[in-house]
Inverse folding.
């Protein structure tokens, strides 16, 4: 009962300071109607106190959290500024001196950047990789001429330009092995004598058995970064290994059948300059072989004399000492006469159907070639060629 009265007076007493005027018009407090109402007021007052405490705690927590977040962001901003300063460390260029720099097949931007930094070409790897990644730049393999202390963007301009890549050897379909060897030696800086020694040893440990010790036909057409290779053996093995892999991929039979396919394909590659004709030329070869006829191909005679087909003379076609003279010696020549491409190899595997025994290129500018099943038809085609020559040469 005493607590109830105390609560009543606490809730309803209004104190007036000394010397101040009492509140005018104020009504006396209304007493509670019951103990229940007094307990209700006490509960309300406790809830207000608890709410106030919770709000105060929340405000303090927000202040602490906000301060922590702000400090964290400030530190992160400071670190990012520091990292950014490191990332953009770059030389103004244009640089000085000369650096021969090689990008190997399969190297990524990060690895290239590390090598550039070691060579003192760029100031930081980040300056290089950030530009490459931002622009999705393609960097090509090869040997490039750079300078020390170049701007990263200028280095990228060079490494993304294939025209500035030195030391690349392009092996073309129809090209002879001797030409490939000479170009490989020149571009790689490796002595020609090193290639000659391997050739003299019949490609030991490089060529497959079915090649018979001859590289002709066994050098896969394509592009090779010979400047990055250390020896003639490494260069030739790369070409031969790619050739073997390609023949396996094309389904060319192994053993002696593989060499036969390569010989026929190489003749087709050398005789005509349009893929549309390869299948017909290989059919002519097969038909002639079946009938026991000599092949009579200028391309094989030219190979045996180390000249171009257009340089073949009547005397050359009568020379029986040339093992590649298919006018005088029946059957296929002893080796391929060039490095055939995929289309010619496919044509050797799958000749077109037909009864042709002859073919003649009637227009040397366009490469138009006509095929014939009889000698009379062939003579007409030859006459057409002679007419074109008279009018155009």
């Amino acid at each position: 009962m005493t607590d109830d009265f105390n609560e009543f007076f606490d809730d309803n007493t209004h104190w007036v300071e000394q010397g101040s005027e009492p509140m005018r018009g104020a009504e006396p407090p209304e007493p509670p109607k019951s103990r229940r109402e007094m307990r209700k007021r006490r509960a309300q007052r406790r809830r207000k106190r608890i709410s106030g405490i919770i709000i105060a705690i929340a405000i303090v927590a927000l202040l602490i959290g906000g301060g922590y977040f702000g400090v964290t962001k400030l530190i992160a901003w400071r670190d990012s500024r520091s990292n950014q300063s490191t990332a953009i460390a770059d030389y103004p260029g244009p640089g000085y001196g000369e650096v021969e720099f090689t990008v190997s097949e399969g190297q990524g931007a990060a690895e290239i950047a590390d090598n550039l930094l070691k060579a003192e070409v760029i100031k930081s790897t980040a300056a290089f990789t950030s530009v490459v990644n931002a622009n999705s730049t393609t960097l090509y393999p090869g040997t490039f001429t750079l300078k020390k202390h170049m701007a990263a963007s200028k280095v990228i301009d060079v490494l993304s330009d294939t025209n500035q890549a030195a030391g690349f050897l392009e092996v073309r379909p129809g090209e002879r092995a001797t030409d490939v060897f000479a170009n490989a030696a020149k571009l790689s800086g490796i002595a020609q004598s090193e290639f000659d020694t391997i050739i003299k040893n019949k490609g030991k440990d490089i060529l497959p058995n079915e090649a018979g010790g001859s590289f002709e036909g066994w050098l896969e057409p394509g592009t090779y970064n010979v400047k990055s290779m250390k020896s003639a053996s490494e260069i030739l093995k790369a070409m031969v290994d790619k050739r073997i892999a390609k023949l396996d991929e094309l389904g060319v039979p192994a053993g002696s059948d593989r060499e036969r396919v390569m010989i026929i394909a190489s003749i087709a590659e050398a005789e005509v300059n349009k893929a549309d004709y390869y299948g017909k030329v290989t059919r002519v070869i097969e038909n002639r072989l079946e009938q026991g006829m000599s092949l009579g191909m200028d391309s094989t005679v030219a190979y045996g004399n180390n000249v171009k087909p257009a340089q073949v003379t009547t005397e050359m076609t009568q020379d029986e000492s040339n093992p590649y003279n298919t006018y005088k010696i029946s059957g296929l020549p002893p080796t391929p006469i060039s490095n055939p491409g995929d289309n010619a190899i496919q044509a050797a595997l799958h000749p077109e159907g037909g009864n042709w025994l002859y073919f003649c290129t009637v227009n040397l500018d366009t490469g138009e070639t006509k095929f014939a099943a009889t000698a009379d038809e062939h003579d007409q085609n030859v006459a057409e060629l002679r007419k074109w020559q008279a009018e155009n040469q």
User: Anything to note?
Assistant: The beta strands are 96-103, 142-148, 168-171, 222-225, 358-363, 368-372.
